[in-house]
Queue: 2 jobs
Job 1
Amino acid sequence: MKGHIHIIAGSDSGGGAGIQADIKTVTALGGYASTTVTALTAQNTTGVQNILDIPQDFILEQLKSVTSDFEIDAFKTGMLSNADIVTAVAEQLDAFDCPVVVDPVMVAKGGASLLEDAAVDALKNHLIPLSNLITPNIPEAEILTGKKIVTIDDMQSAVPDLLALGAENILLKGGHLEGDMIVDLLITPTQNHIFTSSRIHTKHTHGTGCTLASAIATSLAQEITMVDAVEKAREYVLEAIRQAPKIGSGHGPLNHMAVD
Ligand SMILES: Nc1ncnc2c1ncn2[C@@H]1O[C@H](COP(=O)(O)OP(=O)(O)OP(=O)(O)O)[C@@H](O)[C@H]1O
Ligand SMILES: [Mg+2]
């Protein structure tokens, strides 16, 4: 086991996304996962039925319990629900030197809001500036930049605005654009990389974003470079989609234990 990844995110009772996807991913890729749960969702493959935020004090207690006992090699944040939680988590993470991967989760695949509107400013002002990598999907990048993104050129045009938010690296995920090819853009301080893959035509993509970000965080904790970490994470997600168990009547989960 190599690399301790501390995940700060919400629970998905359906097991396909959120903390559950994060733990499975980190474990499958050989890391150790510990967690700070920010919210509970009553959720399945058809959508999010209800959300219960964990009180902020208790969120911070979880974080302090873990970080006071273990050395953390990378943090990964997911659903943070509201502005107070975003700000409180950012204040804590500021004290650490290890990589922080921020998946700026805003809307669930089924359309449910996972972040209050006011929290977007907190994300921009407090958490994104201290992150090593942010992994917005297209709708999240549109909210973060205030610009519409419908083409790959639009994705390229959004890069300066995303960089201005202060993250060291940006992975803009193109899964939400139309087309048979999926393009993800990685912007690092020294180079830009375009990753492409054929779209797998399936409805079983619940938790792809959480899984990708956790896979990247695991590699960073294992001292793999950013470009290689993204490459490896994309391959892992693709195989996990290909071998999805096809369960549930909506967007089903991935197979986190899938191997080539
Ligand atoms: N149908 C698909 N076929 C192949 N790759 C996919 C597919 N859907 C998503 N991906 C890949 O999964 C990763 C996550 O991208 P996506 O845009 O789905 O994130 P997301 O919207 O944040 O996901 P989530 O809804 O789980 O939060 C990307 O690397 C993308 O290329
Ligand atoms: Mg996502």
Note: The helical segments are 18-28, 56-69, 83-93, 117-127, 138-145, 152-163, 208-221, 226-242.
Job 2
Amino acid sequence: MWRIAPLGLRDRFILSSTALITLLMIVVIFFVELERTAALKERAEEHASAIAQMMADLSENRLMYYDLVALQQNVERATEDEDVVFAIIFNRDARALAANEAAREIFPAELFEIGAEMGRLERGGVLKEELAFETTDGRDVEVLEVIAPVFVEDELWGAIKLGLTLENVNAEIQRTRLGLISLGFLGLTFGALGSVFLANRISRPLESLVEGTIRVAHGDLRHRIDIPPGDEIGELAANFNRMTTEILDDREKLEEASKKLLEAEKLATIGRLATALAHEIRNPLTAVKLNIQKIGQHPALSDLEREQVGIAETGVQQVEKLVKDILSYARAPQLHKDTFDLENLIEDALRFVEEPVEEKRIQLVKDFAELAPIDIDGDQLRSAFLNTLLNATEAVSNDGVIHVRTRLEETDTGTWAVVTIEDDGAGIEKSDFKAIFDPFFTTKSLGTGLGLTNARKVVELHGGRIEVTSEPRVGTAIALWLPYATTEPTSATDDNEALPEVHEVHPSH
Ligand SMILES: Nc1ncnc2c1ncn2[C@@H]1O[C@H](COP(=O)(O)OP(=O)(O)OP(=O)(O)O)[C@@H](O)[C@H]1O
Ligand SMILES: [Mg+2]
């Protein structure tokens, strides 16, 4: 069992429009032919009636006087018209008095009878009938027969029977029919071509619309349907394109969100792992540190040995910082506030960077404003300053300059104590700028990538923000904005609610 494949929209359109054109053509041809045939027949009838009437007029007196010669002459004159195949003149007794010779030869005898018709004849009127004869020489002829009465003063004196061949009329009808059929074919051809053209014009955009939907359905959301606007299909395509753009946007947002979620989950896991590890390391590390210090103090050590112990001590210090950073990254967002002098805290932090400052012969420029002690978590902020200072010492080359400043700043949102650490070091590459606060983001071989993360966390917990301005190979300035709050210490949760957005500034290059 086989099935015919369903036709496509284009083929269906072509087929139906062609069928419609054909039907229209047939109807038009039918009516035109009907009209034309009627007109030709009418003309033939008028022609025949006119001749018959003329013969009747000419034959009036001749019939009265039985002038057979004149009647025969009338007949001969009438048959001079090439369409007239017979002309017969009857007297009032229905006797054929005159007829053309050819009629007598080829037409059957009943043609010369007029019995019943005589009774139907009226003054001024003619009888018409189409007849088909088989001539004596075996031809079929179609004839329009017209019978006109001959009245003499209200009395029927005879009748004229005239036969007009319909051969010419039929030939004309045939020609008309042929012409109409050729015209019909021409019309049909043009109509079919037109419908193919139209179908293509409609179906091409539709095909590209369908192709577009299939591609989009298969996940190619970047595919655009290229149909010029202007009609319904164009508008549909434009809406479709708009829809896919929106889907694409939404998908990208979704992907971005799930990436962030994954990242956050990953970080949380890393954080938990690192914290567990840091806790495990902390105690043995303290023992190692103490022992190294003890060994270092032994008087019997040679210079080389003392140097080696020093290297070991630095290593231990690095691990200690790592443990500290990880633990403060993982620490619950809580503050233990007390009244602290910012300048003292900064000096404390500076003490921890004495070694690199000395090693690199860094020029430290301090510029502290007169500030009243404020309510802050001293330990955590000290670490934040230290991390920022360490970054500056790591960024500068030998003989670099680091400015440490404090100032008071009045803004619409209140009064701020701003601590700025500015260096003339390597600066931050534009591509790294966005990531510097991300946990574990580092460009250093021995970096953990938690320094700025923790600093920001602490500053934000205080209700402050960090501003970074940097230019590669020129330097970096990091400003820690802290609310200049000299009131009673508040709980950390209250502070959390007031967290402002982190404000990052990148200079124009
Ligand atoms: N003052 C600065 N100058 C240039 N780059 C800086 C500066 N401060 C921070 N950065 C960039 O930001 C990155 C992140 O700093 P962050 O302090 O968080 O981590 P880290 O210094 O790499 O490692 P660690 O956790 O040991 O501090 C750095 O690796 C560095 O690329
Ligand atoms: Mg750092």
Note: The pocket of magnesium ion (ligand 2) is lined by residues 387, 390-391, 451 (CB under 6 Å).
